[in-house]
């Protein structure tokens, strides 16, 4: 799947923190529970949509993944304000480098859809949603 926008450079946790894209916080149980419910709703909405609506399915499941990552970060005392910093969080804090690379791929595809109007054909969208669901299963093991 070709990406329209190729970014230069990677963010690491030090850069994210220095640029105030990550801050230390105290975990809030109520917020954590609310995040899990919100992620679940996004994922269920993705499942309801027909395969012909590939881009909305991709953005919904991406949102669900990002919310689960927010949950994991908050649980460990980090508030993350930038999606690229979730990649750094996965790689450096969670020690899940491969998952960090996968999330970054999903992030770039979602950005191409949301900000550049990229269209994804039905078969590619279906395959990507399957990859994202597999990713979701892996990160949910950390919840």
Describe, in plain words, how this protein is organized in 3D.
Helices cover 69% and strands 4% of the residues. With 143 residues, the protein is mainly α. The chain is globular. It has 6 helices and 2 strands. The longest helix is centred in the middle third of the chain and has 22 residues, at 54-75. It has a single domain, classed as Four Helix Bundle (Hemerythrin (Met), subunit A) (Up-down Bundle).
Comma- or semicolon-separated keywords:
globular; Four Helix Bundle (Hemerythrin (Met), subunit A); two-stranded antiparallel sheet; 6 helices; disordered N terminus; mainly alpha; 143 residues
Short description:
The chain is mostly helical and 143 residues long. The protein has six helices and two strands; from the N terminus they run αβααβααα.
**Name of the CATH homologous superfamily:** Nucleotidyltransferases  domain 2
| N-to-C span | 30 Å
CATH fold-level name: Four Helix Bundle (Hemerythrin (Met), subunit A)
Rg result: 15 Å
Helix-strand string: HEHHEHHH
Helical fraction equals 55-70%
Q: What proportion of the residues form beta strands (DSSP E)?
A: under 5%
- Second-tier CATH architecture: Up-down Bundle
Stretches where pLDDT falls below 50 for ≥5 residues?
2-8
Structural class: mainly alpha
CATH class: Mainly Alpha
Architecture blueprint of SSEs:
Layout: H1 13-18, E1 22-24, H2 29-48, H3 54-75, E2 78-80, H4 83-93, H5 97-116, H6 122-140
Helix pairs in contact: 2-3, 3-4, 3-5, 3-6, 4-5, 5-6
